[in-house]
What does this fold into?
Amino acid sequence: MPVFDDAKDRLEDARGVLKDLSREAARRTGDGAQFLSELSREAARRTGDGANLLTDFGKEAARRTGDGASLITELSRVAAKRADEGAHYALDRARNERVSWTMVAAALGVGFVTAFALVNSRKAAATATTAMTGDWYEGLTGEHRRIEKLFKQIGETGDVQVAKRTRLLDQLNALLTRHALQKENVLYPALRATDQGASSMHLAAELFEIKTYLYELEALPKDDPRWLRKAKALQKLVEEHIEGEEQVLPGFHAGLAPADGHRITRAMHREALKLV
It folds into this structure.
């Protein structure tokens, strides 16, 4: 019948449409899955790029932090060196010009009692020069100049200035004793291992004579007329010793490898600390 035939045709058409829709849905589902897969890959790639970028940032931050730490360390060393220089200058001014303890305290940024102790501390004064320098030869020649200055001050005293002579001799004795300890235990043995071995033995022998004069000056009354003559005889001996060292040591110093120079500097500092 025509009605049934028409219904059948429409059913077939509907089935065809459903098949087409199913195929299109499957196609679009596949496209969606592929699109999701591509999105996942892109997300993974960008995540990797982000991780690499973060890693690069981390490396750069670590490098800059290291540079900053090195700079801070270097600035700390410079600040400590300058603080030592300022303290040493204030102490010398206090001794030579009799500056009041209050002024010294203000200059050093410490209390009154601390300033008093620093100015009267023979050992603090004796270790200042070497502590401020990073090289053993600079420290040695700096001490030579301080020794010469002390002898000049001693030579200007009179027989009635017993207290001043006692104080200056104490400072000279402390400085020469420490100076000799560093050279006998570190410098001269290092020098003897070179072609300057004979010079090191001669310089070491002179130290014994210097110590003998110091002993005699300590025992002699400071108001004895012979005291200043003996002090000047010691001065002449020490100045000749210094002249001999400053002829020999520059060449030895220049010929040292940096590592050997640093080793001698550290060893001389350790010897100095034994007397603190």
Remarks:
- Residues 136 and 263 are 9 Å apart (CA to CA).
- The two ends are 129 Å apart (CA to CA).
- The chain has nine helices and no strands.
- Residues 121-273 form one domain.
